[in-house]
Design a protein that fits this description.
44% of the residues lie in helices and 14% in strands. By secondary structure, it is an alpha+beta fold. Belongs to the fructosamine kinase family.
Length: 243
């Protein structure tokens, strides 16, 4: 008889569990990055496969870039759309996050991802929000996002693959996932981005928009931890406005 895969059990609120389980299931697309299988998500207990850790390597990074592009291209019904079966009131880390579908990314990003967290952090980002349409770049269709794609949620597996864990999945702009990946660092990042663009080239000027997309995760950190993150948000906003 073959050995059974080890399981990982995660305890959190029933709402956060429902959101994460729905996200993990939604992110499992053909040709996309591997995602841990969800065995159960009852109450506040999420049971999924445990992924053995390995080491970063170039080939895995290239494959990850291509697979991440495939995941994004799988699409979403709308910007802000939750995963099927996922709750409207979700979480990102320990912070609440509302998933409310909207037809336009710039207005949605300003009203649901910048303004609520700026208010909680006591920061004024009204100028960024008032100029969001000109700052946003060319229109794109909604992408299927991991939503919390910092390096801690990018797991280099012992099987030589890059797995995605702990999502805050929703429909959004694909540059948001890539901007978060750049914010907190990722091994072989240039190779990941290069391989990504082989499958799904980014719109002209995407590098100038990285800091705009980084405002959301920085605001979440400012709300949760305060301190230097508040000043980092303001410095990033100034950079966004200066172009």
């Amino acid at each position: 008889m073959g050995s059974r895969a080890a399981l990982r059990t995660k305890h959190q609120s029933p709402q956060a569990t429902a959101a994460e389980a729905a996200g993990l299931r939604w992110l499992r697309v053909e040709g996309g990055p591997p995602i841990p299988f969800v065995h159960s998500s009852d109450g506040g207990v999420l049971v999924m496969d445990e992924i053995p850790h390995g080491s970063p390597n170039l080939q895995a990074a290239v494959t990850f870039g291509r697979r991440l592009a495939t995941l994004h291209l799988a699409g979403a019904p709308a910007f802000g759309a939750p995963p099927p079966g996922g709750p409207r009131e979700a979480t990102i880390g320990m912070a609440p996050m509302v998933n409310e579908p909207a037809p336009s990314w710039p207005e949605w990003f300003a009203s649901q991802r910048i303004q609520p967290y700026a208010r909680q952090a006591g920061l004024d980002l009204d100028e960024v929000c008032s100029r969001i349409t000109e700052l946003a770049g060319p229109p794109e269709p909604p992408a299927r996002l991991h939503g919390d794609l910092w390096s801690g949620n990018v797991l280099w597996g012992a099987d030589g693959q890059v797995w995605l864990i702990d999502p805050a999945a929703h429909g959004g702009h694909r540059e948001s996932d890539l901007a978060m990946l750049q914010l907190f660092g990722c091994p072989f990042l240039d190779h990941v981005l290069g391989a990504y663009q082989e499958v799904a080239p980014l719109a002209d000027g995407w590098r100038t928009r990285v800091k705009l997309h980084q405002l959301f995760p920085l605001l979440v950190h400012a709300v949760l931890f305060g301190g230097g993150y508040r000043s980092e948000v303001l410095a990033t906003a100034r950079s966004v406005l200066q172009g």
